[in-house]
Amino acid sequence: GPSYSVTFVNSLIMLALISSIVVLVIGNNIARAFGLVGALSIIRFRTAIRDTMDLVFIFLSLAVGMASGVGLSFVAIIG
After folding, report:
1. Are the C-beta atoms of residues 59 and 21 closer than 8 Å to each other?
2. Is the full-model pTM beyond 0.85?
3. Engineered SS bond to 21: which of 54, 68, 71, 79, CB 3.0-4.6 Å?
């Protein structure tokens, strides 16, 4: 059968955890959601990302930065 690289499988697991942090940070605020989408689109189209783990770490740093900026320091520390 098809085989997957280890970094791809690890990135899928980490993305599930990071997505839960993002959902906690965004909550019911539509402005935060659009801010996150805008930041990700700028980073994605400006840099050539070769490895999936690089994209995961960029997404993690965005999530932690948004959590600390919103004032959810506990979520940022856990993240």
Report:
1. no
2. no
3. 79
Sequence letter at residue 36: L
What's the per-residue H, E or C state across the chain? CCCCCHHHHHHHHHHHHHHHHHHHHHCCCHHHHHHHHHHHHHHHHHCCCCCHHHHHHHHHHHHHHHHHHHCCHHHHHHC
**Token output for 34:** 């659009």
Q: Integer distance in angstroms from the first to the last C-alpha of the chain?
A: 35
- Rounded-to-integer distance, Cα 66 and Cα 2, Å: 37
What gap in Å lies between CA 57 and CA 72, rounded to an integer? Answer: 19
For 47-79, the pLDDT digits (tens) are 677 777 887 888 888 888 888 888 888 888 887
